[in-house]
Give the backbone structure.
Amino acid sequence: MLLYMQTKKNYQNLISKLEEISRLKGIMGIIQWDQEVTMPSGASEARADQIGALAGVIHERMTDNVLGECLNELNEQHNDFSVFERCNIVEARREYDLMTKVPKELVQSLAALGSRGHAVWVRARKENRFSDFAPVIKEFLALKKEWAACAYPDKSAYDANIDLFERGATSVEIAVIFDQLKATLIPFIQEIKQQAYQPDTSILSGHFPVEKQEALARKISEDIGFQFDKGRMDVSVHPFCGGSHPTDIRITTRYNENDFVESLYAVIHETGHALYEQGRMTDAGDLPVSESLTMGIHESQSLFWERMIARSREFCTHYFDMICQTFPGNFQRATIDTFYQAINACEPGFIRVEADELTYPLHVILRFEIEKALFEGDLSVDDLPGVWNEKMKQYLGIVPPTDTLGVLQDSHWSSGAFGYFPSYTLGAIYACQFFQAMQGALPDAKSNIATGNFAPIKKWLNENIHSQGRLYTPQELVMRITGEQLNPQHLIDYLKVKYSEIYRLHG
Amino acid sequence: MLLYMQTKKNYQNLISKLEEISRLKGIMGIIQWDQEVTMPSGASEARADQIGALAGVIHERMTDNVLGECLNELNEQHNDFSVFERCNIVEARREYDLMTKVPKELVQSLAALGSRGHAVWVRARKENRFSDFAPVIKEFLALKKEWAACAYPDKSAYDANIDLFERGATSVEIAVIFDQLKATLIPFIQEIKQQAYQPDTSILSGHFPVEKQEALARKISEDIGFQFDKGRMDVSVHPFCGGSHPTDIRITTRYNENDFVESLYAVIHETGHALYEQGRMTDAGDLPVSESLTMGIHESQSLFWERMIARSREFCTHYFDMICQTFPGNFQRATIDTFYQAINACEPGFIRVEADELTYPLHVILRFEIEKALFEGDLSVDDLPGVWNEKMKQYLGIVPPTDTLGVLQDSHWSSGAFGYFPSYTLGAIYACQFFQAMQGALPDAKSNIATGNFAPIKKWLNENIHSQGRLYTPQELVMRITGEQLNPQHLIDYLKVKYSEIYRLHG
């Protein structure tokens, strides 16, 4: 009995330490959101210092000796622990082991460079000057290699960075999956581009006032389940989903008056992320067991809504009238069918976040291959724009006219998020498999989408994914839900059927 | 030489600790601003936890043994220290001594109650239910008395709370000053109200679209010197000036479509605070020596702009045309003269922040007397609305019809800021004395105001007050600038001259 009491007391100590860490990380979420959405431009130096200071405190808390001793005392196999408690202990130990290997100064340098790097990137992107941004990438590569050597001495530097976003995945395994996609998608895209029949994308042209885009995006985000009393929607250079807590989830987008599709689908994408966060288990505080699993699983949630749902014919059926009414005079020549085709048109373009489902994986594969080469010393940062453009030509047949439209387009490297990109395409594969499983469980799903009844679908995701937190590994989760491992063939089959029909390949 | 090196090293240690504290406090500034401006309503519980966690970290840092030892080693009288360095040491020691007397748990309880209390207050004010808010005041009084007993064992609980905002001031001294004001202002206001001639305030009525008010306020704020690249202007329930750093100062206001004066003058008031913060010495980092001196001095800066400048005939002369153009059709019957009289009309009202210069001190005196009685046990919280209304009748001849328009109007008590209110009127006295000194130094000041040339005035404030930080006590500062101590007679004389002219008392 005494031992039991001591065990429970140790567990309570662990929980209060984890809660403090989670709250400080929530604050970091707010000041980072603020930096991208509301902070005055003149404050960027001071903000870098502030982020560095808070990162230092968080690192100190996460590597606290007392936390380590507390974890040493706890045996998660003990019968008295529930499955939730066990998961908190295991996750806390994994995190602690990872963190205690990295010196505080290195963590602070990474955080400060991330903040400064973002400002440099914004300017370099605006002024189309890659050479201004190159030193940030170089500094990050050096720091990230140093970090990898501390955190994952047994892994290659790039695999260590991938592990941060997609635990257990390796660049070798990812390369196999990506090669399978490349082998199919590159010739399939070429075939499509040679087809005589092409969707008429000109029906999407026009002028779309920002206020109307914003109202429409807000309406659709709310329809599919975003809770605005526990979140916000704002504008930033690059759309993202951030926040501080499941009750405070913040999505952003950017508006282009000549293109409402980009901003609307960015909102739906970020709403997918937000639904994951807002749907976390409610009775587990803000503790590790309730956290999102991996970036790949997170992306599966954003892509589930952005692609599997919102680029379906059923979704267009439901929203076509509302879209026409929002922008009167813009869709005179359009029908549900031509609208569906137009928003799914396969058009190799420069910008990843504007890419269609078919070409998107190639944007990701390009970045994955470049990151791999950078980390493995096969590519120097100064050669990056050249290699970028070369691969664009090889995979998509086009070359960006400026670096702003090429190597400078994404914010990821400005915050040091190397190894993140693969998650987008792993997420697309997961999303496709989850969608098939969801249809099995909810036979009316497609007709529900066509009538705007998204609640059962959101509920299915809440129950099967969001509220499962970290109770299972991604491999276990996909097996539980789909009865199968991650398998790119499902995505390939889905894309072939969908695009063959749109482009009348067998027509 | 060795000793010198050791001293410099200790000082450097002190500075890096002070810098970390200042950065963490800056982060607190952002999450508090966020709470009032951008946070979704559903996040208030989580935010209270986050603020509690950060307050705990800041308290831990401010009471760190190593900081104490570092301060013990440092003798600020040492010849090697500049006057700036000395001030940093003295201020750090004062703060450290104050903080080490208060237990961390108490600091966290106060911070958490402040966050929760704010949400309770917003709702109670909206629903006109003082009884919902009363428990928060009671809890705060208990905690604040406990705090005072730890922090200032030699002072009464209320004096301890006053000292936090106006260092060195006591409730006895303030009562003397306030009694002097009461003795003059109550009969003077009665005399004015009995005058046959009254300004025509109906010329200020009308409909004032929020966007136009916002644009005008932004323009005037910028004209008088607010740097928008180092700050923001937003909307909140109660106007305030916050932020995280001299490069990140954030003011708020609230808009009423039927009254543009309230929001405009709130913006000018908060701009005065903001100019103080943006004008802090630039080469002293964000260290104690550069911080604002006291709340009274801070209020002197907001009131300097809001009243001494923006309620002057010269200011009206400059902006009357712009105001007429902003709201076409609204000021058909007005002239510069009637406009000046109308915005200065003495109208005893319920709301402090809407009060004119003459009645404002009585709002403050009422609150001061209530706080004093609450702390001294002469008044129970449940009797507060009754006493509030009684004093309103006695001082201003009116009784608020609801608590929303009475005891629930201010946010201060919801965050535990007892002892803050006196600063408003001490600030008004300082502002009046500073304005007279400024006119001595800048003989063209009034004509500069009339032509919208505010730069010399802002420069004078920057040089004489903002950039002086904490190098002098408030008493030394007012003596250096005006050659005199704080003296309410200047404010009384100024008000008598101004209002006798407006109300034609000697006409």
Remarks:
- Chain A has two domains: 2-154, 171-502.
- The beta strands of chain A are 231-235, 241-245, 248-253.
- Chain A has 20 helices and three strands.
